[in-house]
Design goal:
Shape: globular
CATH architecture: 3-Layer(aba) Sandwich
CATH superfamily: Acetylglutamate kinase-like
Structural class: alpha/beta
CATH topology: Carbamate kinase
Largest sheet: 9 strands, mixed
Number of domains: 1
Number of strands: 11
Radius of gyration: 20 Å
């Protein structure tokens, strides 16, 4: 082979090599657990299900899955019923939490329909038996869905009262061995106080688990923080309602606030 041809072949090989490295660097996560609050699924009012919001979520989720990222999703139910709020209003706490678990199933079924519209399989799993509405959770079944290019949506919380869907998200993140837990909310990160009430609230770009727990930051509960710290799973809190944020985050951009090991 002429020397000039060898040179061109070498350039092609080198370009391909560095392109694969670049793609590897950009692909920050292989498998993630995405937590979506019920309020975010309710749109600007935070109540009910907003079809436009679900459609936008589905588009970004499908895009990420098609790029090779495995995604499990835990959904909240606060847009329909929140157990803690129900208890304050006079509902029995256990029954109130069970009502909240059912609310997450409704949200999961709705989100799954919009994801399937993007030609990506989405299976809804419940923490308690609820066939034929959804599949009963088992890790082996979930991994089959994820590894075949589908999305696993976890509903019903942990299946127990007194545990939030944040705790369910950390539990499922540990079980599926996620690289990170991404919490999508209506705010763009973690603040030292409620930014909707305090215009001078300070935003954190990064935090340690110890600091987040010591300051009792309300963005997630202590159980969720402790479980992720123990299993070395970073948490990223970001505004999921800003178009493109999920894609940017998965591509390595610094979006929101990251909580990681000390």
């Amino acid at each position: 082979m002429p020397r000039k041809d060898i040179f061109y072949v070498a350039i092609i090989i080198i370009n391909g090599y560095f392109r694969s490295i670049k793609e590897f660097i950009i692909m920050k996560f292989k498998r993630i657990l995405l937590k979506l609050s019920g309020e975010s699924m309710g749109g600007s009012d935070g109540v009910g299900l907003d079809a436009n919001v679900l459609r936008a979520y589905a588009e970004e989720i499908a895009k990420a899955v098609k790029s090779g990222i495995q995604i499990g999703i835990v959904v909240g139910g606060g847009n329909i019923f929140r157990g803690v709020a129900g208890a304050k209003a006079g509902f029995d706490r256990v029954k109130g939490d069970q009502m909240g678990m059912l609310a997450t199933v409704i949200n999961g079924l709705g989100l799954a329909m919009f994801i399937r519209d993007k030609w990506v399989n989405a299976e809804v799993f419940t923490a308690l038996p609820m066939e034929p509405f959804a599949r009963y959770y088992a890790k082996e079944r979930v991994m089959e869905v994820l590894e075949s290019g589908g999305v696993a949506i976890f509903t019903g919380g942990t299946g127990n009262p007194y545990f939030t869907t944040d705790s369910a998200a950390s539990l499922r993140a540990c079980e599926i061995e996620a690289d990170a837990l991404l919490k999508g909310t209506r705010v763009d990160g973690i603040y030292d106080s409620d930014p909707e009430k305090n215009p001078n609230a300070k935003k954190y770009t990064s935090l340690t688990f110890s600091k987040a727990m010591a300051e009792n930051l309300k963005i997630m509960d202590q159980t969720a923080f402790a479980m992720c710290r123990e299993n070395n799973i970073p948490i990223v809190v970001f505004d999921v309602n800003t178009p493109g944020n999920l894609s940017k985050l998965l591509e390595g951009e610094e979006i929101g606030t990251i909580v990681k090991e000390d």
